[in-house]
Please model this.
Amino acid sequence: MTDQHFSTSFGCPPGEDPVPSRFTATCRARLGLKIGSAAHRTSGLPLVWARALIPVPNRIVVSLIPRAPSATRRSLLESVPHTLSADILAGLWVTCYEFNSDGGIGRHADISRITPQSSRRVTAKNYPPDPRTQGHVPSFRNEIEAQLANRHLIGHWRNISDTRYFGSIHLAVLPGEAVMQGYYTGFSTDIEVDAMRWKWVRLDPASLSGVELAQVVLKEPDVIYALLEHSAHEAPLTLGAVVEGT
Model:
């Protein structure tokens, strides 16, 4: 088949140059698509065709090679079954952790809201109300993306108050699903990794009725830290226990 016959047969203007041009290559690509579509209609199978169009002056060679579609590989954690639904963790939690600073060990406290994104994935953010971080203004505003694997919540956090701090988080969900505790990793320099404890205790939803969270002020981080350290595994905290003026 000449370039002119090829072009005319497949709806492309005839070319005068016997050497395949860019336009001729486009026409040949159309031919490959037509043949692939025709093969799909004939077989009725969801085949993926690898089309090798080899331009040779005055003739065209079309190679159709069936191959299996590539499977999307699951992440390592997705291969671990989750024994809890993310819906169980939805809601507000009081959280507290320690961190390294130039002045020594500091403490941070906040109220974080967990929002399920699927049966195993969640997001969380710790405002409102404003968090409290010793020695830092503004306080650390954290956002989290995590997923459940077994009874563990594993993911990553980032401090959106600045453009520097981020890390990982690994919490175990204790029986009763009212307390989570574990560790987070962060860094104090670009070549040092810190690992510190992080504890979460659920807030009793009944104590939140009619409350505007943006208007409340959390107690000092030292006070909340001590409260969480002695909290029972099955007992949520009331909002009044962690905010000022109550």
Q: What stands out?
A: Residues 22-43 form the longest helix (22 residues). The helical segments are 3-9, 22-43, 221-229.
